[in-house]
Specification:
mainly alpha, Lysozyme, about 0% strand, disordered N terminus
């Protein structure tokens, strides 16, 4: 479904000692107090900052996704087959022309995750008037459950004369996609969706981590 991005995925730079810093970990060091190049959120700060910056994303948001997806475990594999820091699915890796044995490489994995977010935003094409909360929430939902599901929810919102750029509205229709009265609608292309609670929880948790990281780390 996804086209490969231009560029070559590199190898992971030498990592610093493993330690994850969160606002509820007493050892964390706010970035404005920490020495240059020190760990602020995770041992992958240097990778995430570089990759996020290349695509115009806030590195703290990407860190929040990695925290929720894998707890910063680059070898993590979910029961659904998602791999690495950003929990990328093999089909997505194939679209990015990344070999299966490279999916756990932190730099490669973060590039795929950020690339996927970039493609989601380009697919949805939010108007500038959309609030940051709505844009981030809808984008994160698409990252979690697939852009097709989110587009289905947005098409239903339009059909029922509701704001398809509102996260409150989109989340409502994602939930309604478990009801045949909605998932059998001709405007729905991906069929029934039963994991709405998981997706809504994912969005809420990532945004909570993001808010916390914004308090301890600067851009």
């Amino acid at each position: 479904m996804l086209a490969a991005e231009s560029g070559v995925y590199g190898t992971t730079p030498a990592s610093v000692p493993v330690k994850t810093f969160t606002p509820w970990n007493k050892e964390y060091a706010p970035s404005w107090l920490a020495p240059k190049n020190s760990v602020v959120i995770s041992e992958y700060d240097h990778i995430i900052k570089d990759v996020a910056g290349d695509k115009g994303f806030d590195w703290r948001l990407i860190s929040a996704i990695a925290m929720q997806e894998s707890r910063f475990d680059h070898d993590a594999v979910s029961c659904a087959g998602a791999v690495g820091l950003m929990q990328v699915m093999p089909a997505t890796a194939c679209g990015f022309k990344v070999a299966p044995d490279q999916m756990t490489d932190p730099l490669t994995n973060v590039k795929m995750g950020v690339g996927l977010l970039y493609q989601i935003e380009r697919t949805i094409r939010f108007p500038r008037s959309v609030s940051e909360h709505d844009r981030l929430s809808i984008t994160l939902a698409a990252y979690n459950c697939g852009v097709g599901r989110v587009l289905d929810a947005r098409r239903l919102a339009v059909k029922y004369s509701e704001n398809h750029n509102s996260w409150n509205v989109v989340s409502k229709y994602l939930t309604l996609l478990g009801d045949p009265a909605y998932y059998e609608d001709p405007s729905v292309r991906t069929g029934i969706f039963r994991d709405n609670a998981q997706t809504l929880g994912f969005v809420a948790k990532v945004l909570r981590y993001y808010d916390s990281y914004c308090q301890i780390a600067s851009l």
